[in-house]
Amino acid sequence: YTTTFLATVKSRLSDLASARVMLEQSAVQFRAAGDRWGLALALDFLGDTLRRSDDFTAAEAAYRESLELFRALGDQWGILVPLLDLGVVAYLLEDFGQAKSLLEEGLVIEREAGEKWLTILSINYLGEVARCEGDYERAEGLYQEAMTLCRKLGRHVSMPYVMHNLGHVALHRGDDQQASALFKESLELFRSQGSRQGMADCLGGLAGVAGAQGQAKAAAQLLGAVDATRGESGALRWPADRLEYEHHLARSRALLDDA
Length: 259
Fold this sequence. Notes:
By secondary structure, this protein is an all-alpha fold. The chain has helices spanning 2-12, 16-33, 36-52, 56-73, 76-92, 96-113, 116-132, 136-153, 159-172, 176-193, 196-212, 216-233, 239-258.
C-alpha cells in the first residue's frame, strides 16, 4: 500500500513514468498476495496515470478491471470512482453513448449514497456530453444543478469548470454579456488554482464572445493566447472545448477574411 500511495504522489507531481512503474509493481504484488481490494485500488490509480499520459485505451482496461473487482467485493463505495473514470474515458474517446450510460449509472448510485462531490463531477461531465451532442438546453440544466451543489458545498473545486461551461451555454443562446461575465469569473478562479488549462479554456470562451460581437482582431488575439497558454501547460483539449475552439477559430478567420 505504501508503494501505491507514493506512486499517486509521483503522479500528482507529473512524474507519470515513475508512477506507472510503481503502480504496475503494486498490482503484481497485490495479485500475488490475493489482495483484491488493494489490486482494485492500484488499478484505479494506474488508470488515472495512464489517462494523464493520454493512453486512454490502457486506462480504460485498468479502470474496467478495478470496477469488476470492486463489484465482486460488493463495495458500493469502491465502484463509484472507477465507474466515473470509465465514463470520463469514454467521453475523451468521444463514445458519447457509452459515456452517458456509465455516467448516468454512477450518478444513480452517487445520489443514493449522498456522495455530493462525485455527483457534481458526474453531472458536469453529462453536461459536456450533452454539449457535444448539440443539446445545450439539457447541458444548461445539468450545469445549473452542478453549480447549485458547488455553492452548497462552498466553492467546490469544480466550480470554475461548471461556470466556464455555463459561459458557453450563454454564448450559444446569444447572451454575450452573461457569457463574458462567466468566463471572466471562472478565469480568475482558475488563475487562483494555478490551472493553465482552465485559463486557456476561459480565454477561448472570451474569444468566442469577441467573435460573436464582430471583434475580429480581439478574437484572433485571444485565440493566440489560448494556444500559447495551452502549449505551456501541455494539457489536452477536452472534446466539448475542442468543438467550441474550432467554432470560434472558424468564425474569427471568416471575420478577418471579410475585414
